[in-house]
């Protein structure tokens, strides 16, 4: 390796300081020394997550903090984006022995057939790497209610409001964390004019309760026909979730679940460490959990 390449590697490693690098590279893998989470068979709600080779270790933190602080054992389904190795899958299976692991090759075969009568959906599923969140999740969902979860979320306390909405049989809305601002590929005014309903502000598709009935393929096929809706590669998935949820019925979770870009957990039950602040997941979130003996308690 040349001196220039080595210098670049060092700069990238310590871009956010030595503390972030320490918790990311040294402390983060220690989650794999904790006890597996077994008996995840409660189908009151089923957790669905999409992960990849570079994110699955973060996902282990996400899931273990949720299961620990919620004291729930919701069923779990983990979707491979096609990059997980056999070793990755084996480690995930060890830590979540009752989870269903959906490998990408199997999912492609099943979902392409499933979407055969919805050509716009099929094309979108073939070309957008986040599209399994829209199509694979409900297709494999074995409950009427889904906990939508990204692999960049940490829990610090019981997410009481979220759990109450999940477990209230009379609660019939989708409910998600609020984003910093609305991040959609279509102007909400155009949606209202074209489709006849108002799109909720600040919908974020990283954390929330989604009812299976809201992910209606006919609706998604309709929305995908709108001019220029495809737009930004990750905003389109969030846009389609927001559209389906707004037509179905939706509200945001309380403000303590909102995405925020400033430092600080602020006593909130969870935090969504979106890409812009991913480094805080290590230097703030994992650091906070470690200092509060989270790893030690999981090893007990």
Write up this protein.
- This protein is an alpha/beta fold and 300 residues long.
- The chain has a single domain (16-299), classed as Spore Coat Polysaccharide Biosynthesis Protein SpsA, Chain A (Alpha-Beta Complex).
- 44% of the residues lie in helices and 16% in strands.
- The chain has helices at 3-13, 18-27, 56-70, 86-95, 104-114, 119-127, 132-140, 160-167, 188-195, 217-224, 235-248, 278-291, 294-299, and strands at residues 42-51, 74-80, 100-102, 145-149, 153-155, 174-178, 203-211, 250-252, 270-272.
- The strands form two sheets. A seven-stranded mixed beta sheet has the order 3-2-1-4-7-6-8, with helices on both faces. It has a two-stranded antiparallel sheet with strand order 5-9.
- Helix 3 (56-70) links the parallel strand 1 (42-51) and strand 2.
- Helix 2 packs across helix 12 (278-291) and helix 6 (119-127) packs across helix 10.
- The radius of gyration is 19 Å and the shape is globular.
- The model has no long low-confidence stretch (mean pLDDT 94).
Short summary:
With 300 residues, this protein is an alpha/beta fold. It has helices spanning 3-13, 18-27, 56-70, 86-95, 104-114, 119-127, 132-140, 160-167, 188-195, 217-224, 235-248, 278-291, 294-299, and strands spanning 42-51, 74-80, 100-102, 145-149, 153-155, 174-178, 203-211, 250-252, 270-272. The protein has one domain (16-299): Spore Coat Polysaccharide Biosynthesis Protein SpsA, Chain A (Alpha-Beta Complex).
């Amino acid at each position: 390796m040349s001196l220039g390449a080595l210098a670049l590697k060092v700069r990238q490693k310590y871009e956010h300081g030595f503390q972030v690098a320490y918790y990311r590279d040294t402390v983060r893998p220690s989650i794999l020394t904790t006890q597996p989470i077994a008996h995840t068979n409660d189908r009151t709600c089923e957790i669905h997550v999409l992960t990849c080779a570079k994110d699955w270790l973060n996902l282990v933190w996400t899931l273990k903090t949720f299961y620990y602080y919620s004291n729930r054992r919701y069923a779990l389904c983990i979707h491979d984006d096609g990059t997980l190795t056999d070793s990755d899958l084996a480690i995930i299976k060890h830590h979540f022995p009752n989870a269903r692991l959906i490998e990408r090759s199997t999912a492609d075969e099943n979902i392409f057939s499933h979407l055969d009568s919805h050509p716009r959906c099929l094309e979108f599923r073939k070309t957008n790497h986040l599209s399994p969140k829209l199509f694979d999740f409900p297709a494999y969902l074995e409950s009427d209610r889904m906990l939508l979860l990204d692999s960049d979320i940490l829990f610090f306390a019981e997410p009481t409001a979220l759990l109450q909405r999940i477990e209230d049989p009379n609660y019939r809305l989708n409910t998600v964390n609020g984003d910093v601002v609305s991040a959609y590929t279509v102007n909400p005014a155009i949606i209202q004019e074209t489709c006849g309903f108002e799109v909720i502000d600040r919908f974020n598709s990283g954390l929330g309760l989604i009812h299976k009935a809201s992910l209606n393929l006919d609706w998604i096929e309709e929305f995908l026909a709108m001019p220029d809706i495809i737009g930004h590669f990750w905003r389109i998935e969030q846009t389609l979730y927001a559209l389906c949820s707004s037509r179905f019925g939706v509200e945001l979770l309380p403000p303590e679940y909102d995405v925020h870009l400033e430092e600080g957990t602020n006593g909130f039950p969870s935090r969504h460490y979106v890409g812009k602040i991913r480094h805080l997941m290590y230097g703030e979130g994992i650091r906070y959990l470690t200092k509060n003996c989270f790893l030690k308690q999981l090893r007990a």
